[in-house]
Amino acid sequence: MIDELNARLCQHARTTLPDVLQVFPCLDGFDVYAGDGHFHAHATHDPADSKGRKHAVGHLFTRDLRSGLLHHLCVADQVERKKEHDMRALKRMTLAALRQGAPKGRKVLYIWDRAGIDFKAWYDWKQGSGIYMLSRCKENMALVKCGDLPIERNDAINAGVLKDELVGPSGSGALLRRVTYQDALSGHTYEYLTNLIDSQVPPGVLAWLYKSRWDIEKSFDEIKNKLGEQKAWAGSATAKAMQAQMICLTLNLLHLLEHELKEEEGIENEAEDKRRQKRLEQAREAVKKAGGVLPKTLEMVRRSTQHSVKFIRWVAIPSLAIRPLETRLRRPGDPLRPIVSVVYWTPLSPFGSQRECRTPARKHGEGAGYNQTQGHGLASHRGKTR
Asked: Exposed, middle or buried, 315 (CB in 10 Å: 0-12/13-18/19+)?
């Protein structure tokens, strides 16, 4: 049931949240996900192995780089493996699950670290289901160069791109694309590998996409250090999958709530925006002094990778975070009303206890009780940020 709720939430959120990749028309036909494995500490009642040790619980998650929504793919196999490899887990999944609801004719691009490289698997998924991958080359990888792709040097998007080549692993019929890129700030050189051969997608965009893979690591950091989800709730695989879905549902609701506060109330995290702008200006100055060119991609996309601690604390304040949920419950045609109803009335949810803490509104002025406490959260937040 929780996975269905999260799916409905994501379906609605995709039509509501801004698409940060719309600045790249070359990606219009793609759903783009950053993927990685993530571990929680074992549950108290998890069985121990023959040496009396208990092992961490693995999951595979993806983050939609268009909307910022988090998705749970699967729980790692803890029966046959102590620590299941990412590709083994991906191969256990159905093609429909890997496409994550993408309509027929739409392509899916996964951005994975080096643990996601398997030439045959990605070749089969590309040929049969339009599923593509983008990763980094391994140090011991022996690739045969087959040709060069043209690079539009006059386009600032491709700043830092040194090579754009067609390559192939020896003994395999798979044709791949290798992009060599030098970071303008650090001076480090990286090699990216993809089975997306289409030259309509500039190599500079591919380099930026892999850089954006770090967004999912930011989500993991928020899960553990800001939301405190560091340990599995229960021993069964079903319970662990439900926990992962609840984590996704929580982060996605936070994402949607933060967006609605900005659109409907004019409240946004201006302090973080200023810090982001300052970092960009510092990067421009550093690259200019070094005689280089800052890639245009770094200036084209403005996105938030985490929710601030201040915002999460505000959500946790009784009488404040619960208010937007109650507003939605009063909207008969709201597409999120069934989801919000479940979250609102579930005793175990963080909102369940807050219902009991609310100050009753006075007869004249429905929000009187809510407004009395606004000075501790929303009102003060608004005063500082508007």
From this structure: buried
Q: What is the pLDDT of residues 71-115, one digit of tens each?
A: 999 999 878 887 899 999 999 999 999 999 999 999 999 999 999
Sequence-separated (6 or more) residues with CB below 8 Å from residue 195: 122, 123, 126, 132, 133, 174, 175, 176, 177
Question: Which residue is listed with tokens 């915002």?
Answer: 311
CB atoms within 10 A of CB 366: 12
C-alpha angle 22-26-29 in degrees, rounded to nearest 5? 80
Q: 147 has which bridge partners?
A: 166
With contact defined as beta carbons under 8 Å apart, do 247 and 226 qualify?
no
d(C-alpha 245, C-alpha 239), whole Å: 10
Which residues, other chains included, contact 230 with Cβ-Cβ below 8 Å and sequence gap of 6+? Answer: 40, 41, 224
Q: What's the token pair of residue 32?
A: 């783009």
Name which residue leads in pLDDT, 71 or 347: 71
Handedness of CA 214, 123, 106, 339 (dihedral sign): negative
| 375 vs 370: CA distance, rounded Å | 10
- For position 188, what pLDDT does the model report? 94
Q: Give 6-45 pLDDT, tens digit per residue.
A: 888 888 889 899 999 999 999 999 999 999 999 999 999 8
Residue closest to 203 by CA, chosen among 180, 187, 183, 186: 180
Query: In the numeric block, which tokens belong to residue 106?
Result: 């739409």
Q: 304 and 272 in contact (C-beta within 8 Å)?
A: yes
Task: Examine the pLDDT at 195 and tell me if it is beyond 50.
Answer: yes
